[in-house]
């Protein structure tokens, strides 16, 4: 997998639109290329910015009446006869005058229109499980919501919590949720939360030391004699919640080191860990 292909998976991961197969491919690729963690961070921040950057739009006052009128026209259109479709294709169909606009006062009291079964094309689209189809559908849904008057406040609620916070909530509700805590040298503490069934690990750290702007914290799965990068993060406040890249395995130790900006250049820790938390 090249960096461009990973960037596409990262965008789908940030939107929660990956299939289970693509999610595994994304996780494996990031574990093999920890230097791509910066792409993941940018995508996560972009999702939040997109949600907060949509201006409020008031829906047209006649929206309901226009929808009811459109439904009425579609319901009144005669179905095509497949036995005569070819013969009629060469003849001009008679013009059907549009139905008059339904006044808003009448449309407000109208009973709801009966729902028709979805077209075959829609059913087929739903059955496709590739994340790209899911991503296109999500974008289309956002456009529709904005058109109906959903502004930044409503859309922001869809991504009100960062991915790490959402993952922590999922882990805490999982039946196999586990956690382990260790104290930091400067008096703070770090807690690792994980669920093997979900394949997610989250670190909650309080009181991390201050580091220079050209340095960053990097997480590691210490597995036997091997250290596997689990992504980088910056502690911007007193408490930091970070979703690790990759899944914990029995016996792993979660460690934090201070590395140069962007993470370790060779994929191995270059400093001693400031904390190490066994999960066994």
From TrEMBL:
Skewed-composition ranges (Low complexity) = 76-94
What the entry lists under Gene3D superfamilies is as follows:
Anti-sigma factor, zinc-finger domain (1.10.10.1320)
- Which sequence ranges are marked TM in the entry? 135-160
> Which GO biological process entries does UniProt record here?
regulation of translation
Name a GO molecular-function annotation: sigma factor antagonist activity
**Keyword Disulfide bond annotated:** no
Q: Which UniProt keywords apply?
A: Cell membrane, Membrane, Transcription, Transcription regulation, Transmembrane, Transmembrane helix
Q: Which domain of life is it from?
A: Bacteria
A Pfam family the protein falls into: RskA_C
| Start and end residues of each Anti-sigma K factor RskA C-terminal domain | 139-274
Q: What is the protein's membrane topology class?
A: Single-pass membrane protein
Chief site of localization: membrane
For this record, an example GO cellular component is: plasma membrane
Residues covered by region (Disordered): 74-120, 260-280
Q: Where in the cell is it found?
A: Cell membrane; Membrane
Q: What is this protein called?
A: Regulator of SigK
């Amino acid at each position: 997998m090249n960096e461009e292909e990973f960037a596409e998976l990262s965008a789908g991961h940030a939107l929660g639109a990956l299939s289970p197969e693509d999610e595994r491919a994304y996780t494996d690729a990031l574990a093999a290329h920890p230097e791509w963690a910066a792409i993941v961070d940018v995508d996560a921040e972009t999702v939040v910015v997109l949600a907060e950057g949509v201006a409020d739009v008031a829906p047209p006052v006649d929206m309901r009446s226009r929808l009811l009128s459109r439904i009425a026209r579609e319901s009144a259109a005669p179905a095509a006869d497949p036995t005569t479709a070819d013969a009629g294709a060469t003849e001009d169909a008679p013009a059907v005058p549009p139905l008059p606009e339904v006044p808003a006062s009448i449309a407000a009291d109208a009973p709801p229109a009966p729902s028709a079964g979805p077209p075959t094309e829609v059913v087929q689209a739903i059955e496709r499980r590739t994340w790209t189809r899911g991503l296109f559908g999500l974008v289309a849904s956002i456009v529709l919501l904005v058109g109906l008057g959903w502004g930044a406040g409503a859309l922001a609620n869809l991504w009100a919590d960062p991915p790490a916070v959402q993952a922590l909530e999922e882990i805490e509700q999982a039946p196999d949720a586990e956690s382990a805590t260790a104290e930091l040298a400067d008096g703070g503490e770090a807690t690792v939360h994980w669920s093997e069934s979900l394949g997610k690990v989250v670190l909650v750290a309080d009181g991390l030391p201050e580091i220079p702007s050209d340095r960053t914290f990097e997480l590691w799965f210490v597995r036997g004699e091997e250290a596997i990068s689990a992504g980088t993060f910056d502690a911007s406040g007193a408490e930091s919640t970070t979703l690790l890249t990759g899944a914990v395995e029995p016996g792993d130790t979660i460690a934090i080191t201070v590395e140069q900006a962007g993470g370790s250049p060779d994929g191995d820790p270059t400093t001693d860990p400031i904390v190490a938390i066994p999960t066994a």
